[in-house]
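W.,

You were right to be curious about this one. When I first looked at the sequence I had no strong expectations either way, so I just let the prediction run and decided to look at it fresh. Below is the sequence, 330 residues in total, followed by the output.
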Amino acid sequence: MSSKLPIVNDLGFYEIRMESVGGFGANLAGKILGEAGVLGMGFNGSNFSSYGSEKKGSPVKAFVRFCDTSVDVRINSPVTEPHILAIFVETMLDTPGLISGAGKNTIVVVNTSMTPDEARDKMQLQCGTVVTLDAMKIAVEEKTRVNTALLGAITAVSGFIDPEMVKEYIKKNLGKKYANLIPPNIKTFDRGSAEFKKKVFEDDSEFPPQPFRRDGQKTGYMNQPIGGAILTPGNSIHKDLTVSRSGWVPVLHKAKCTSCGECDITCPDYCFVWDVAKDKKGKEAQTLLRIDYKHCKGCLRCVDICKFDALVSKVEYEVEPEIIKAGFTE
């Protein structure tokens, strides 16, 4: 690996932006990458994260900057035009502005089972390099998280980050509290650096450029309603919790279901859909129809409480798409 930065912006920085949600380890990934580059490889640089409420599913951004030792670090603003843009969750690709600032010199690394062509079309990326990696599949198989798999891909495609140095700082960050997790995470890193797909796309005028933008908030302290009243009650129905899943989902077997309702009681997000229908005795009763996977975060509490084995846990990528769409299987 070269110890020289392959490309820098006008201020002399090689910049990385990670787009994720809480629970996928983007904050730690940025920390490991920053320490490996600055403390391990001798670059100047910095890393920091931006997030709101510290809980699973909340938006998280991590930023890393590297520069030559002759360049002073006098900037601490978010990365707006990244050289590497890492997207930790496939369902985030529908988020407006996610790839804003990505250009011809940007390498977009996406955690997805899609091909680079499919991912480019999904993102509507004008040009640049697209790298796809099924990091969730690797994480489930190795019993780790997607962050170390994506670190492997980022390291490999960067052209200058030393993989051995990144491994060293994975060990240092996990060693104090989670020494037992070091071997599977090193294996996850190695698989991430080897199992990705990569393709370079030129500007073929198929998609428009997406310059960086910051939309800001529609309400704040100047125009917030008195008492903090919620003007759009029931808005949680529009919230997509699929980004919170960590590779596992419950699957409903309707033939075994008695519609007892215990799953609905224990579900924190009301993802079970009910309606009046005839039960097995021909009487009209409230009947469990399906799971709305848009509102399921994969906590699997329903599986634990079901006495009839009507709900079972499955690895999400092994479940037929038709079952996810229907919300049940017979």
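Here's what jumped out at me. The domain at 13-201 is CATH 3.40.920.10 (Pyruvate-ferredoxin Oxidoreductase; domain 3). And, maybe more interesting for your project: The two ends are 53 Å apart (CA to CA).

Coffee later to discuss?

I.
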